[in-house]
Write a structure and sequence with these properties.
Helix content is 38%, strand content 21%. With 205 residues, it is α/β, with parallel strands linked by helices. It has a 6-stranded mixed beta sheet, covered by helices on one side. The longest helix is centred in the N-terminal third of the chain and has 18 residues, at 5-22. The protein is globular.
Length: 205
């Protein structure tokens, strides 16, 4: 099993946001897709806290999918499905065979700043197809706002990401808002988190 210290630090905050936005639907069984699940620590914790959701983890890396499988086995969670290979930059038809209007929630934690613009477009295009009406796309990470990055620590993070890969970097909230609108969604809330992180909540219309 892989272990991410950052995931151990931030899972509770992200989980509380998910619990808050899904509370009014907790009387029924929901289906949630996680993009870029990484180690699997988040999805396992979420499943333990929200048993009314069936969770579908996914990742492009085999080592991450193996880690998720190990966490499922070790924790005996019943509501986390086996991880699937999913490249969010691909057309939604290639998203592990998930049908249109099949998900209540799609969430991506720390994915967009490590992604190309094409991948960000793929996330919003795919969500627009796979989410049910009133379904939610939730992204967690660090963002620019109208072309501005603050504070200086986030500017440094953006520079470091772009050195690692010129296509990476902090995505702009205003650009994401426009992407959402172009795919039948609207930004509903911005939740301020620790260390200048934010949860963006988009709803499919």
């Amino acid at each position: 099993m892989l272990l991410s210290p950052q995931a151990e630090r931030n899972w509770e905050g992200v989980c509380s946001v998910l619990e808050d936005v899904l509370e009014d639907q907790s009387h029924r069984q929901l289906f949630a897709l996680e993009l870029g699940s990484g180690t699997g620590q988040h999805v396992i914790r979420f499943a333990q806290k929200m048993p009314f959701v069936t969770w579908q983890p996914s990742d492009i890396k085999e080592e991450c999918r193996d880690s998720i499988k190990a966490y499922i086995t070790a924790t005996h969670v019943k509501t986390v499905l086996q991880p699937v290979h999913l490249d969010a930059s691909e057309p939604w038809e290639k998203w592990a065979g998930l049908p249109r209007n099949s998900s209540d929630v799609i969430f991506a934690i720390n994915l967009l700043q490590y992604s190309s613009f094409k991948t960000a477009q793929g996330v919003f295009n795919g969500a627009g197809q796979i989410l049910r009406q009133n379904g939610l796309l939730i992204t967690y990470g660090v963002y620019a706002i109208n072309g501005t990055i603050t504070p200086s620590s986030n500017e440094q993070l953006d520079e470091e990401l772009r050195k690692m890969n010129p296509e990476w970097g902090l995505p702009d909230i205003d650009v994401l808002r426009q992407m959402a609108y172009g795919n039948g969604m609207r930004m509903e809330r911005i939740v301020e988190m620790e260390d200048y992180f934010k949860c963006l909540i988009f709803r499919k219309l």
